[in-house]
Amino acid sequence: MTLDSILEEIKKAETIVILTHETPDGDAVGSSLAMKIALRQLGKDADVIIPKYSRTFEFLPDANKIKAESEIKKYDLAISVDCSDLKRLAEGKEYFETAKTKIEIDHHSINTMFGDYNFVNPVAPACCEILIGMFEYFGIEITPELGTCIITGIITDTGGFQYSGVTAETFEFAAELLQKGVNISNVYQKVLSTKTRANFELSRIVSNRMEFLEDGKVTFTYMNLEDEKNVGAEEGDHEGLVELGRNIEGVEVSIFIRQKEGTEGYKVSLRSKEYVNVADVAIMLGGGGHIKAAGCFVQGTVEEVKQKVLSEIRKVLK
Ligand code: 5GP
Ligand code: MN
Q: What is the residue extent of each domain of the chain?
């Protein structure tokens, strides 16, 4: 079984690196740190390499040990968490490619199975939910520190238990974590309810620019690098802006694009409410993701990107 092989590889390895996707969200950072803490119980001191992440997650146990890069260039084992393909590992790609053994643990519906061992469950609402099951199988004790990282991923990737991917098991895991002393209310407050001032200022800007298209079934809005500069935005301050459109009555698809530094284009975020599969739309544009939350990069001006994305969405909108 893959899980037994994964445990064997972990036990064998002397140097281990944990990697995740670029612009990491709570599930990415939470999964990485949960893996680091779990491996410590197996007697392994693994490096977590995340070049940039939001300060929202600095409260997480072991976050102060996250490295931007490493002097080790060839690890015995690389473990990728919450990442659908090699390209999305961005700066972590090299560490993954050069490692002797490569393990990949993920929950994206579109996954390229880029590891030697791929443990992928596309119906898990968060990568952290896969990890808790895996750790229990490995006999790892779910301590409050480990549980805090896990619940962070579950809370952020389910929008606070609201998305349709949430199952009875999700609540069972949450109940178990609560019993083990994890302060879920505190994590919820820190990662979902609290907004940075810059995030709030950006929400004003993108709300003002919000357009209602296709009989109000689609919203479109955008953000440029200049906007980020004007409000003093930091890493992660765009999080949640795409939800503004989706939360409006009658809207099926929300499109939010933000200018990507050093490129001639925009990072596209897509969200749907009931029936549109935005992962399919994102794939047509070279990206990927989940049925109701997906993304891609599209070259062009705001207007050009908008038209390219809209033309794909029109094909799937009822
Ligand atoms: P977000 O809109 O929050 O950036 O991303 C939503 C979902 O789509 C996430 O699960 C993310 O991993 C995925 N996603 C975003 N951009 C890309 C992309 O360029 N390629 C792929 N494969 N997935 C993406
Ligand atoms: Mn995730």
A: 2-193, 197-314
The per-residue pLDDT for range 32-81, each reduced to its tens digit, is 999 999 999 999 999 999 999 999 999 999 999 999 999 999 999 999 99
State the distance from the centre of ligand 2 to the C-alpha of 215, rounded, in angstroms: 31
Distance between Cα 14 and ligand 1 center (Å): 32
- CATH number assigned to the domain with residue range 197-314, chosen from the 4 options 3.10.310.30, 3.40.50.150, 3.40.190.170, 1.20.1530.10: 3.10.310.30
- In SS3 terms, 156-213 reads as HHCCCCCCCCCCHHHHHHHHHHHHCCCCHHHHHHHHHHCCCHHHHHHHHHHHHCCEEE
Considering every ligand atom, which ligand is closest to the CA of 290?
Answer: 1
Q: Which two tokens stand for residue 92?
A: 């972590």
Q: Flag whether pLDDT at 318 surpasses 80.
A: no
Ligand 2 centre distance from Cα of residue 69 (Å): 22
Model-level pTM greater than 0.90?
yes
Ligand nearest to the CA of 32: 2
